[in-house]
Amino acid sequence: MNTQIPQRPGKIRVLIIDDSALVRQVLTEILSADPAIEVVGAAPDPLVAREKIKQLNPDVLTLDVEMPRMDGLTFLQNLMRLRPMPVVMVSSLTEAGAQVTLDALALGAVDFVTKPKLDIQHGLTGYAQELQEKVKQAARARVTRLQPTAAPPPTSVIQYRTTDRLIAIGASTGGTEAIRVVLERMPADAPAIVITQHIPPAFSKPFAERLNKHSRMTVVHAEDDMPILAGHAYVAPGGLHLRVQRSGARWRCRLGDDEPIRLHRPSVDALFESVASAAGANASAALLTGMGDDGARGLLALRKAGAATIVQDEATSVVWGMPGAAYTLGAAQQVLPLTQIADALLASTMQGAA
């Protein structure tokens, strides 16, 4: 069951957990510079943090992974089981760091920022606005008490004739787990799926590999000019827009390093607008949990093109920013809980299928 941590009046109270005194100092300076945030304490390891949480009752934690006495993931797992609260991970921008960060998001962390490998003080300062915004969003996020992992319900065996059907999915904050939930409910022969998740370049390939382990479909890290085939899902690389281009009777992935769209690259709007143009009424799309409004205009373009459009409901979204913006624009035909979205996408692809 999802629960929302009520935000108390006044400043957002933050506890910083990191074994580096320099990082604790820099994070304190960055967050304290925002008038909406108060850093109420800092801890060098999870055992100290555990006591400070009891004493200080913070609204949000920032959490490192590699720490003495107890690693961050073990601490996070215990926290989400016993006292769920919003956590923003501050993780290393490496492939190993990406795997651990994805584990943290699976355990219930709301979001993450990447810690530079060199010149930490100046590097983190460069992420100041992003960190401040993510902490403020986390304070309003819904967090879920960690439950034992259960196998997804079996999907009905249906033979899809899908050469002319396409599904598009977009997400941001909370999306790595939301996309997993949707994909693990898809059959192996589902229509092709194209996916844009806001994620850094070092994280998108491990994210695609993780999705592949949880899906009956084949999930790949998209490459330029890659053919889009039924039974496959294509994840936009971090730092590149993913668009769909019609090529004869088929579609292909097109990657671009053109300007960010409303600060995002990859952009959900870029993907959705290309799908509206290339597939039109042969497409179905879902906009999942996420901060901001990326994807809202693209989903409206899809609806106007005759595509079936869905947004995740507020109750199951970590942050109802992107889906909420799409709903406000009138872009959504359906507003559904996360666990119902896969079936709705599949049902919409069967309508008028060849």
Considering the chains and any ligands shown, give keywords for the structure.
Rossmann fold, seven-stranded parallel sheet, five-stranded parallel sheet, 12 helices, phosphorelay response regulator activity, Sig_transdc_resp-reg_Me-estase, Protein-glutamate methylesterase/protein-glutamine glutaminase
Write a concise synopsis of the structure shown.
With 354 residues, the protein is α/β, with parallel strands linked by helices.
Please state how the strands of the largest beta sheet are arranged side by side: 10-12-9-8-15-16-17
What is the name of the CATH topology of the largest domain? Rossmann fold
* Structural class computed from helices and strand pairing: alpha/beta
Beta-strand percent range: 15-25%
Contiguous low-pLDDT stretches (5 residues minimum) are: 1-7
Our Rg estimate from Cα atoms comes to 20 Å
Q: How many runs of DSSP E, i.e. beta strands?
A: 17
What summary fits the major beta sheet?
7 strands, parallel
CATH architecture of the largest domain: 3-Layer(aba) Sandwich
**Residue-averaged pLDDT:** 89
CATH level 4 superfamily of the largest domain: Methylesterase CheB, C-terminal domain
> Termini distance?
39 Å
Q: Which CATH top level class of the largest domain fits?
A: Alpha Beta
N-to-C SSE string, H for helix and E for strand: EEHEHEHEHEHHEEHEHEEEEEHEHEHEH
Total tally of structural domains: 2
In helices, the fraction of residues equals: 25-40%
How does the overall form come out from the CA principal axes? elongated
How many helices?
Answer: 12
